[in-house]
TrEMBL record:
One of the protein's GO biological processes: glycerophospholipid biosynthetic process
Keyword tags: Hydrolase
Biased composition (Low complexity): 23-51
Molecular function GO terms recorded: hydrolase activity
Organism of this sequence: Coniochaeta ligniaria NRRL 30616
Name of this chain's protein: HAD-superfamily hydrolase
GO annotation, cellular component aspect: mitochondrion
Stored InterPro entries: CDP-alcohol_PTase-I, HAD-like_sf, HAD-SF_hydro_IIA, HAD-SF_hydro_IIA_CECR5, HAD_sf
Length: 441
């Protein structure tokens, strides 16, 4: 095995070992946030400072490439659970030639270490958390302000989202199932998920305010459940329950569930008082309306859930827009976060490989994706604070194809890629030729 391959293999062993220990700590204790947080600190998902145990002087010097890649996953590297032809060979080529890359996906719902271990197995390529960003990875940067607050989380598996949030460092994490367990009147309809809620619910950190008055003096609510922020980690399954509880909180007094703000609809106030009484901030991890699955047509994603709650909010408030913060591609925040991760990963990789004259400046990043509205628009619209150029490569193996989603007619303005290629290997070949790279993929 080449030295470069040994480096990546040793990184994978480190990452997978941590994944196993983290999974055990989460599974054995509902309140495992401190242990999980400690594990994250040692692994440094954000810093990407994983060690291979090799000394820099033992490694051959290499020239530092001035370019790098960012890859979407679904529809670019994988189709459902199977590698898209050429994907594995492309990643191996980049690793063998010390060309940095990150995986940048709007997927989520599992911890980064778990997802990376799964991707490594499916793609047959050693991967680590140091160059992996999924939709909710940037939520980690919000922990400092909310670590001791109470947050509501939801997603495809809300209880798993709770475990991820606790691993990030959030200490008091509530799910809709927790609320239903103690106050079933919050959604007084027969539910098909009652057994699931009973199995996954946990005790609330504080009791829920039960009325009878909706408008109350909040000074009397000490000790009652107060939600300070709401997070959608990935595509929720029970839209009805989630939307009901989230809208209740958006209408509440200062996040106290079961109350109603007297400022709502007050014409004398900014925004007519809506979301102006200390209600919890609302965070979405991505805005993808569609995503590529095993079905021959794209399926609704988290963006559809976001559109649903925003539409209901407009009806409730008489046409007012829902204030929320959206991460994931194409948001500038996510691309800035991804660039920081890539810069750190590139620095560590090239330092380990003994790059001549240091890593140098990263001049260009090629974003390879299948979705014009997230991958392409995000790369085209992002303005790097350090002057790195982002180019966009659209592949035909996922959400967008010439005969679907409006074809090439929709590829205008921010949606127009630098190039359209058949698949990821063809896209990387184009980029390598553009950079004058002599290696042959």
């Amino acid at each position: 095995m080449a030295k470069t391959e040994s480096l990546w293999a040793s990184k994978l062993i480190s990452s997978c070992s941590w994944s196993s220990s983290l999974s055990e700590s989460i599974a054995t204790s509902p309140s495992s946030s401190s242990a999980a947080t400690s594990a994250i600190s040692s692994s440094s998902i954000i810093s990407g400072s994983e060690s291979t145990g090799k000394k820099e002087r033992d490694l051959p010097p290499t020239e530092a490439p001035s370019f790098a890649f960012a890859f979407d996953i679904d529809g670019v590297l994988l189709h459902v659970s199977k590698p898209i032809p050429g994907a594995t060979e492309t990643l191996r080529f980049l690793q063998e030639h010390n060309i940095p890359f990150i995986l940048l996906t709007n997927g989520g719902g599992r911890h980064e270490s778990e997802r990376v271990a799964d991707l490594s197995q499916k793609l047959g390529v050693p991967l680590t958390t140091s160059n992996f960003v999924q939709s909710h990875t940037p939520f980690q940067e919000l922990v400092d302000d909310l670590a001791d607050k109470t947050i509501l989380v939801t997603g495809a598996d809300a209880d798993k989202c709770r475990a991820i949030a606790q691993a990030y460092g959030f200490k008091n994490v509530v799910t809709p199932a927790d609320v239903m367990a103690v106050e079933p009147r919050v959604w007084p309809f027969e539910t098909l998920m009652e057994e699931h809620y009973a199995r996954t619910s946990k005790s609330l950190p504080s009791p829920v305010y039960e009325g009878p008055d909706a408008v109350v003096d909040t000074k009397t609510l000490g000790g009652k459940l107060k939600i300070d922020a709401m997070f959608v980690f990935n595509d929720p399954r029970d839209w009805a329950l989630d939307i009901q509880i989230m809208v209740d909180l958006l209408l509440s007094q200062q996040g106290y569930l079961g109350t109603y703000s007297p400022k709502n609809g007050d014409l004398s106030l900014p925004n007519c008082g809506w979301q102006g009484d200390g209600q919890p901030a609302l965070y979405f991890s991505n805005a993808d309306l569609f995503w590529s699955t095993g079905y021959h047509l794209p399926r609704f994603g988290q963006g559809a859930f976001q559109a649903a709650i925003a539409g209901i909010w407009r009806r409730v408030t008489g046409g007012h827009e829902l204030h929320r913060r959206v991460f994931g591609k194409p948001s500038t925040e996510t691309y800035a976060f991804a660039e920081r991760v890539l810069q750190r990963h590139r620095h560590e990789l090239l330092k380990e490989l003994g790059a001549r004259h240091g890593p140098g400046r990263l001049g260009r990043v090629y974003m390879v994706g299948d979705n014009p509205e997230s991958d392409i628009a995000g790369a085209n619209g992002y303005q790097s604070e350090v002057g790195t150029e982002w180019a966009s490569v659209l592949v035909k193996t996922g959400v967008w194809t010439p005969d679907r989603a409006g074809g090439e007619a929709v590829l205008k303005g921010q949606l127009k890629p630098s190039v359209i290629t058949g698949d990821v290997r063809e896209g990387v070949r184009w980029a390598l030729e553009r950079e004058g790279y002599k290696g042959v993929l």
